[in-house]
């Protein structure tokens, strides 16, 4: 453990490339769906537009790991298990049109998206899980001999919204982005005397959109 109390790093959060379900605009959470052919081609075509990485983290989901392999080839990476996409429960795989007239769906819409998905999780539960995953990520950084200057995380759209809502300057829906896009920011955090990351010290500032195309 280093004798360090505060760190600032450049951290990018990139949403995975497009899948068939993304193209259909259906809810895609815990289904481990691969990238579509078009999604792979888009990432390959625009690979030069993504930031360099000294260290890479990903969600455990296949679509994120495939995105990493396309954008960052043979660079090593670590999986953050808590960074799965939201559990959409019984809405999984369905589109807005499929759910139109569904009473559970209407209740969820009327709540502003805060009610738990039937047989799934709530936004609050999801945000808590994403924040716990970020703590895992930062503790992994603390194990490095030197804190990397540039970190890339390949994750899900909902996770980007959750983390910037918690630590950024905007709110949840301000950070929606398309597949292959994301946000780069300056992330700062403090470490206590026991070498643990202080969750209350985390901030994400100076964010800029990664267009990815």
In short:
The protein has one domain (6-210): Rossmann fold (3-Layer(aba) Sandwich), CATH 3.40.50. The chain is globular.
Radius of gyration: 17 Å
By CATH reckoning, the class would read: Alpha Beta
Strand count, sense and barrel status of the largest sheet are: 6 strands, mixed
Strand content: 15-25%
How many structural domains are formed by the residues?
1
Low-confidence segments, ≥5 residues, pLDDT <50? none
CATH architecture: 3-Layer(aba) Sandwich
- Order of strands, main sheet, comes to 3-2-4-1-5-6
Mean pLDDT across all amino acids? 95
Helix content: 25-40%
SSE order and pairing:
Elements: E1 6-15, H1 20-24, H2 37-45, E2 55-58, H3 62-72, E3 78-79, H4 96-99, H5 103-110, H6 123-142, E4 150-155, H7 157-167, E5 182-191, E6 197-210
Parallel strand pairs: 1-4, 2-3, 2-4
Antiparallel strand pairs: 1-5, 5-6
Helix pairs in contact: 6-7
């Amino acid at each position: 453990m280093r004798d360090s109390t505060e760190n600032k790093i450049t951290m990018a959060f990139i949403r995975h490339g497009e899948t068939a379900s993304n193209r259909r605009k259906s809810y895609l959470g815990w289904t481990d769906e691969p990238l579509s052919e078009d999604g792979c081609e888009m990432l390959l075509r625009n690979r030069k537009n993504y930031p360099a990485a000294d260290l890479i983290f990903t969600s455990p989901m296949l679509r994120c790991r495939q995105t990493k392999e396309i954008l960052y080839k043979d660079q090593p990476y670590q999986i953050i298990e808590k960074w799965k996409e939201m559990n959409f429960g019984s809405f999984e795989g369905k589109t807005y049109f499929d759910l139109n007239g569904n009473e559970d769906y209407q209740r969820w819409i009327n709540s502003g998206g805060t009610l738990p998905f039937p047989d799934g999780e709530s936004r609050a539960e999801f945000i808590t899980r994403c924040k716990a995953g970020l703590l895992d990520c930062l503790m992994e950084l603390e194990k490095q001999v030197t804190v990397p200057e540039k970190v890339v995380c390949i994750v899900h759209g909902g996770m980007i919204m959750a983390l910037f809502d918690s630590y950024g300057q905007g709110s949840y829906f301000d950070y929606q982005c398309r597949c292959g896009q994301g946000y780069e920011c300056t992330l700062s955090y403090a470490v206590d005397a026991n070498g643990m990351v202080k969750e209350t010290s985390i901030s994400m500032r100076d964010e800029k959109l990664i267009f990815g195309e």
